[in-house]
Design goal:
The protein has 5 helices and 6 strands. By secondary structure, the protein is α/β, with parallel strands linked by helices. A 4-stranded parallel sheet has the order 3-2-1-4, with helices on both faces. The chain starts with a strand and ends in a 6-residue tail after the last strand. It binds nicotinamide-adenine-dinucleotide.
């Protein structure tokens, strides 16, 4: 199984990635702006990491969505202070950028494995007819 984790250096991604590498034989492809919480994963042969901004690395992101079985879109500004100081920026990243990911998952019919979650929204495509 190939998993794409966007926002892999965050709280969830940095805990989930080493767990997956230890307990499963799955491959992880991942992106984040930073790496300081996943340094132990970076040298692992089944962890393929690219540092970058998902809103700029759109071609790479699309390519990985095509190639992976499961997508975990964890990129977010999860900082309540910024909900007040930069509400538009938070909306653009947390909602709009993740909606683009969901649309690509839908376009490439990533429907047959785990559903895709972000924030409190659950995306579970309809089964193919
Ligand atoms: N942590 C929780 O308990 C929890 C609970 C429910 C839902 N969630 C949701 O799950 C998601 C992930 O949560 P988290 O706690 O891991 O968040 P987090 O803030 O720890 O991680 C977000 C990651 O996204 C990265 N990031 C930000 N902008 C980026 C960009 N443009 N390109 C690439 N990477 C970027 C950050 O560097 C960070 O590592 C969020 O949407 C959050 O609301 C979290």
């Amino acid at each position: 199984m190939k998993i794409l984790i966007l926002g892999a250096n965050g709280f969830i991604g940095s805990n989930l990635s080493p767990y997956i590498l230890k307990h499963h034989d799955w491959d992880i492809t991942a992106m984040d702006l930073q790496t300081h919480k996943i340094t132990d994963c970076l040298q692992h042969p089944r962890f393929h990491f690219k540092i970058g901004d998902i809103t700029k690395e759109t071609a790479w992101v699309e390519q990985q969505i095509q190639a992976c079985d499961v997508v975990l879109p964890l990129v977010a500004i999860a900082n309540p202070a910024m909900y007040v100081t930069d509400p538009l920026g938070v909306f653009e990243l947390d909602f709009e950028a993740n909606l683009d990911i969901v649309k690509l998952c839908s376009a490439y019919k990533k429907t047959h494995h785990l559903p895709l979650h972000f924030r409190s929204v659950r995306y579970e495509p309809r089964p193919a007819l």
